[in-house]
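Chapter summary example.
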Amino acid sequence: MCGITGWVDYARDLRREKATVEAMNNTLGLRGPDARGVWVGPHAGLGHTRNSIIDLAGGIQPMAAEEDGRTLAVLTYSGEVYNFKQLRSELESRGHRFRTRSDTEVVLRSYLEWGADCAERLEGMFAFGVWDLRTEELLLVRDRLGIKPLFYSVRPDGVLFGSEPKALLAHPDIEPVVGVPELQELFSTAKTPGQAVFRDMRELLPGHTMTVSRSGVRERRYWALEARPHTDGLDATVGHIRSLLEEIVTRELVADVPLCTTLSGGIDSSVVTSLAAKAREEAGDEAVRTITATFVGYSENFRPDDQRDTPDAPYAAELARHVGADHTDIVLGTADLISTRAREAAVLAQDMPTMLGDMDTSLYLMLRATREHSTVALTGETADEIFGGFKWLHDSELVAADNFPWIEAEKRQEGSRGGGLGRGLFGRGLLDKLDMPGYYADAFAQTRALTPHQENEDPHEHRMRELCFSHLNRWLPMLLDRGDRLAMASSLETRVPFCDHRLVEYVYNTPWSFKTFDGREKSLLRAAAGGGLVPKSVLERPKSPYPVTQDPAYTRALHDAMAAVLADPNSPVLPLLDVEAARKAVADQSPTAHEWHSRSNLEMALGFDFWLRHYGITLDL
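The structure predicted for these 621 residues follows.
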């Protein structure tokens, strides 16, 4: 996993602008600690930072393809193409000769053979740019689900691009300006595909390519989720899902560096871990490495809340024993979370504050600690989006609402003043401008209109298909961006087997009655994990979201930090806050002050203040 960036300008000689390309590239150093490279030609400059995973010696980038001493094309690439060995064999049969074992060269040669159509042949998670010296055109490509990020800014004479906004912000022509549409995205938990949180910046849509030439910019969709008839019976459906998962996990184990699974003790990560252990055993490899994160005293002092019935650690330990894993527990202390540096690192990783607060900070700390043991981690992320695992999908009132069900669920939570997670301390003037209820209403209507349907769906099936699609279209992009950015801030490559597009396509087209055939959530996944793959206790465990600290010392630290912001007349966030509400929150010593949804208001205000300061944000409201 790596960082990529680039600049195309048909009106300048970029050989004189190498320092700018290097500055853009240097912002992505955490994504690639092993090597950095820059290639610059008359009208294009490409940068790359490398986190070496496959062919450690041979995959240096930017990578050039040459013929008879002439450079044909140059590639900067981030990701993993899991079918690269098959593609390599096909390309060799077509006359291509390889000098490395890397998937990078396979991507480059695929472009030379098939041009922009190469995207349709690649399977995996990837984002890349190819500068073709023969045509002086740039091709940008992003994987089908948008697992790997790719931001861009169209300029009068070309384009800028990068894995993260910070790379574009390092260019002197890009200013950190944020207006109402960008703030709506920042406060949203229903991300608009393609929208970024800085003006004049966008993300390349998942499943799309972009071609940049002297005549302008052209985007093309090469993949989209489609509604197809599902003809398999229930047993055949379960068997096909199990077979798909076995194949997916097996091929995602390929790496020339230490690899692990992140194990929570829930069914999602347990299935990935068990299949990985099975594949390694069949291949005669050493035991799978598993890593579990928890808080000091969390299991011993656990208190059930409205989201979590049980702590993770006992279930994770049971699963690790079940598969004979080489298991490591990472224990985070309150002092780790309280650290201002850790909170700010989570903001810097994502180039923005989020409403998730200590969920972001603790995930960042867990991923950073994981990197001390492994360079690659397989996760159980996105199974809920694929298999219908969220509680709100099984709540008739939330399902019937004319809104995203998770937005309606937010309104039930204590501390979500105004029905919005993380917005409780912001002033009415700002909230009225943002009009988040109107934003969500428009977004939901747009998503419903885009939903692929099958013929002759009954009303309930029709509704559930809309909600399943809304998770893939609006919730999943937020989750994938967060996971990538927090992991890459620690130079850790995370792989998400449940995001294989073949699995997504197949499960999307199974009827909702199959997804809930036993009266519970994720019925198909639990059935596919039967036969002793995971222990029964894990198989039957209700969904438990990512753990959050229950230590009151953390809340007190947030109160102290917020009090300091309120006492500083130069705090840039002050004009945006309801100062009286913020003071009341700081003084609140009630039990609800320690609830996560109440803390998220403080954490968002603190993160917003740091973001405004550090990035020098200009607000255009």
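To summarize the output: The chain has two domains: 2-221, 240-539.
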